Hints:
Layout: E1 4-15, E2 26-40, E3 45-47, E4 50-51, H1 58-66, E5 72-78, H2 88-103, H3 110-125, H4 131-138, E6 141-144, E7 152-158, E8 161-167, E9 174-179, H5 186-199, H6 201-223, H7 226-242, H8 248-258, E10 263-267, E11 274-278, H9 282-291, E12 295-300, E13 307-309
Parallel strand pairs: 3-5
Antiparallel strand pairs: 1-2, 1-13, 2-5, 2-6, 3-4, 6-8, 7-8, 9-11, 9-12, 10-11
Helix pairs in contact: 1-2, 1-3, 2-3, 2-4, 3-4, 5-6, 6-7, 8-9
Amino acid sequence: MKTFSASAPGKFVVLGEHAVVFGKPAVALAIDRRFKCTVSEDDAFIVNGEKDDINKHPHVKHIMDIHGLKTINLTSESNLPSGAGLGSSAALCAALSCAVRHMLGKPFDAEEILKEAYAAEYGAQGIGSPMDTSISVHGGGIGLNLPDSDNILWSVKNRGQKWDVCDVHTPEMTFVIGFTGKRALTGPLVEKVRRYRDSNRFAKDIVDEIGSVTLEGVDALREGNKVKLGKFMTDNHKLLSILGVSCPELNSLVDAANEYSYGAKLTGAGGGGSMIALTDEPEKVSRAILLRGGRPITVNTGEPGVRIEE
């Protein structure tokens, strides 16, 4: 039985989560943790060696529906914790799209993989921007809706919103991710912010302010100015907390990491999941996170995007 494999990286959001859903800018970086999918043709739907109900796997079902597949044999491997805000479902969608296209003899096409992966993410969650799938497909660093960008990778439209996705050159940096162990679903949190913003002028102003902080922060990121970037990360966390998407566990880890970091903030949807800290002392940050009950993961920037694995 011939098999076909592909992998894609996880990510974290440096600046701009939640506001990006409303067309504001955001920046995300790929991390050196990956999700791998291996597929082969089969007469049943099999996941990791066991027959399964395809309806229990909505992301997979959407990719299969795009390609007209009813059955498949899928094996997955990942060192990305699910529900941690590190883009595990986007990496799954990107890797699976790439592997299925490879199996069907279709060419490697990053933009087509992005469209398929985002359609699967949106179809499964019913909400969200193409940020996570874009970084899993492209790797490195990406920005959404950066007004001064002239290196657009692709544009995505959905529900009246448009996102221009561009490459963001990122110097090598070390971050420590702190996983709270508390899993949170992205969809309900994004919808919570949407309702708050639509019904409250103050919340709309906070979303706008996140966009402004992101624009200033991306310049610091491109320059490799860790001090300035850390400040904007901390500001971003405070604004997200006002929107109500942080939680005591996240705030505790952010506070613990700040002593040895340029800046720290929650990353992803919030409500649990993970925080990130930009630091030159990853061992000290990791220990501080451990002492607060978190799970530290040291990661580096510059990870390549989706790729076929021979």
